[in-house]
């Protein structure tokens, strides 16, 4: 009962911060979900298929052949669908899952390598898409703690509103 009461005091903390669109819940701000259609920004890979009930990392180390195969497959997919980028342009967060497997955000570089693809498919200016990424980039807390991140769900919602 105390936990339930505490959840009511802090908005969105007990049941997650819902993200709504046209009155319908489309996701949660702090839980990643799969985006793999080419007209959207893609999420960070998940070792648990974005299943919040099974939050976990892959537990495969960098010397594990299956892990290396998974990473190479993700690199190949990014290179195939994002012409013009090089392997060295791809940040680690776009080919490795996080410890929870549910990160809602990617790095600004992870978003940047997808701009050209999205702009071409949607037939909009690359600068417009880049500006949207910049506006949706969260800076480190107090400018010091943690990396800059881009929430993929919020970015894709903003992208759909660009018509």
From TrEMBL:
GO terms for molecular function: ATP binding; P-type potassium transmembrane transporter activity. Keywords: ATP-binding, Cell membrane, Ion transport, Membrane, Nucleotide-binding, Potassium, Potassium transport, Transmembrane, Transmembrane helix, Transport. One of its GO terms (cellular component) is membrane. It holds the Pfam family KdpC. The keyword ATP-binding applies. InterPro entries: KdpC. It comes from the Bacteria. This is Potassium-transporting ATPase KdpC subunit. It comes from Mucilaginibacter galii. The lineage of its organism: Bacteria, Pseudomonadati, Bacteroidota, Sphingobacteriia, Sphingobacteriales. The gene is kdpC.
